[in-house]
Amino acid sequence: MERLIEGTPGEEAAVWVQDRGGGPLRLRGHIMIEDLDGVLTSISSRSGANGPLNPVTQYMLARAANHLADRLIDDAPPGRDGRDSVPRILSSSLGHQPFVESVLEMSQHQMLRRWPLATDWYNDVINYAMRPARFEPKYDRLLANAIKASTGTLGEFVRTFAYEAFTYADSTKVIRVAEALQALWPDYPPVRNAMGQYRAHVMERYVPLYRAAMHAYGLTARPGSDLKHLGWAFNALHAREALEHLAGQNTTYTTTDGQDWSLTGWTIMVLIAGAGMTEEGERLDAVDLMNRLPVRPLALPDGP
Predict the structure, then answer these.
(1) Mind listing the pLDDT tens digit for each residue in 103-136?
(2) For the chain, where are the E strands, in sequence order?
(3) In this structure, are 35 and 157 located in the same domain?
(4) 163 lies in which domain range?
(5) DSSP, res 84
(6) The domain spanning residue 209 has which CATH number?
(7) Does residue 17 sit within a domain?
(8) Half-sphere exposure (CA, 13 Å, Cβ side) for 284?
């Protein structure tokens, strides 16, 4: 047995560690060495037996990541009876009666009259945190501003729409919680159901608006393209930009003429260029579309 001080990235290394309390070294397993030199920013040693390339260092990190996954991602496995269990994080953070008494300082009867069962309480907290309106401003304001912007270029319209539709009308804390729930427990029934409701809401509310805007600017989807697919893509862009925005990343794109766009807004233009064409069948690039003027007034769809 020979303890390896530093492994070679891309090669497998044995992990020999002394158990707590002493005794001989024991083989804990093998690990594929990665170059973590630029990844581990807070480790006390940059090289040697306690550095980023040491097999024990990487073993500890790998085990920690798996342990965290067990506590978070796998926190809601089906019970022995096949029914879905409540994630431990929910029960420990939002305990049915402890929450209303300790956090809200109310009588437990206030909770029990509304949610007699703890599982019902957790479900509705998730439904509320993930409600479709978490990303929406008032829809009437969005439509009013869309009408104003639709008299200008398509670029102005898209920039206005992206700003109005994709600004945060809710607390960023709630947005963080909603994104975390989707990432951690996508198959937990309350989360899965809330995601389905949100997707249906986006399709029902926004696809008719996209169709009306395309018509106003004399555009149509190319054969094989579908505005529902574009709507899904727009929403996916928004969700990604929301995460990057919350992480403090720069989500601004500046065009060659000096205009600042949100990444969502500009990428929408690129998608329209790829999936759309004029009513006469002409294909336009993103810059041409950006400068395109309307050919008819915007006829808004009926409200929800």
Answers:
(1) 888 888 888 888 898 888 888 888 888 877 666 6
(2) 12-18, 25-32, 219-221, 252-254, 260-262, 276-278
(3) no
(4) 132-290
(5) B
(6) 1.10.357
(7) yes
(8) 22
Count of the separate structural domains present in the chain = 3
Whole-angstrom distance, CA of residue 20 vs CA of residue 16: 13
At 14, which amino acid appears? Answer: A
- Terminal-residue alpha carbon distance, the chain: 71
Rounding to the nearest 10 degrees, give the CA dihedral for residues 230, 235, 240, 244.
Answer: 120
pLDDT digits (tens, 9 = 90+) for 27-79: 999 999 999 988 998 999 989 999 999 999 999 999 887 777 777 665 555 55
For residue 4 the two structure tokens come to 């390896």
CA distance 277 to 218: 9
Assess whether pLDDT exceeds 90 at residue 277.
yes
In a domain, 298, yes or no: no
Residues in the chain: 304
Q: Is residue 110 part of a domain?
A: yes
The model carries a pTM of 0.68
Question: Tokens 């990432």 sit at which residue?
Answer: 183
Residue range 158-217, pLDDT digits in tens: 988 887 765 554 456 666 778 788 888 888 888 888 888 888 888 888 889 899 999 999
Distance separating alpha carbons of residues 79 and 83, to the nearest angstrom: 5
Report if residue 189 sits inside a domain. yes
Asked if residue 159 lies in contact with residue 290, where contact means CB atoms within 8 angstroms, the answer is: no
pLDDT value at residue 46: 87
182's enclosing H/E stretch is helix 172-184
Claim to verify: residue 51 and residue 109 sit in the same structural domain = no
Tokens 């019970």 -> residue: 79
Neighbours of 283 (CB within 10 A): 12
